[in-house]
Amino acid sequence: MVNFTLNVAVLALVASVAAAPATADASSTTFSFARWVEDIIANPDTALSPAEAIVAANATEVVSTAGGLQKRANCQPTFPDAPAPDAAACLNDLARKGANGQHCAMGTRVFEIEMCRIGGAQIVASRGGLAAQSVNCQDVARTGGLIFDSCFRADNTVKGSEICITNRLMQINISGV
Ligand SMILES: *[C@@H]1O[C@H](CO)[C@@H](O)[C@H](O)[C@H]1NC(C)=O
Ligand SMILES: *[C@@H]1O[C@H](CO)[C@@H](O)[C@H](O)[C@H]1NC(C)=O
User: Is residue 146 situated within a structural domain?
Assistant: First the structure.
């Protein structure tokens, strides 16, 4: 039953990719974590679960939907590995929190803050300046999606960092705990 459900989800994903008119090569099946985050933000009830997203990513080529202008995230070889399913669960949580209007904030004099920790994965933010910073948690999830698209690995781990897409004073890191 579980396998059946996952297969249906993957087939639905492949079908939606094939149907997307903007895809340059409609015959290729690809997966993007950034696109998955957008799916959660658009409708958390119909988006793939984190476990389904990992299966879909593992079954296809992971690509960035941000286009050629998006530089690759820094995959930070010295960070400890995060289990990808745990890190994906963090993206899912942050995207859902943001959908409820929740902000991910760093107060004055706070230089590092944990935005999410699930299992063996953590998503932390750091900043250089002194002023307090705040973004919708959706944007932390979106930034995490970009890290995944560059840094998800076949051994089912992920780690890396990227500047927050909507606040260049905040850096988002995904790593093992
Ligand atoms: C990824 O795919 C490989 C090859 O099909 C499979 O052996 C492995 O179990 C898969 N891993 C996950 C996390 O789905
Ligand atoms: C995030 O990674 C950068 C680059 O390695 C590092 O300078 C920063 O301290 C890290 N932030 C946290 C909160 O660990």
Answer: yes
CA of 34 to the centre of ligand 1 (A): 21
One-letter identity of residue 5: T
160 within a domain of the structure (yes/no): yes
Q: Does the C-beta of 173 come closer than 6 Å to ligand 2? A: yes
Quick check: is 3 in a domain?
A: no
Provide the β-strand partners of residue 62: 31
**Predicted pLDDT of residue 65:** 64
For 58-110, the pLDDT digits (tens) are 988 887 765 555 678 899 999 999 999 999 999 999 999 987 788 999 888 88
Structural domain contains residue 60: yes
Residues 85, 65: Cα–Cα separation, whole Å: 20
Q: What is the total count of domains within the chain? A: 1
Distance 113 CA to ligand 2 centre (A): 10
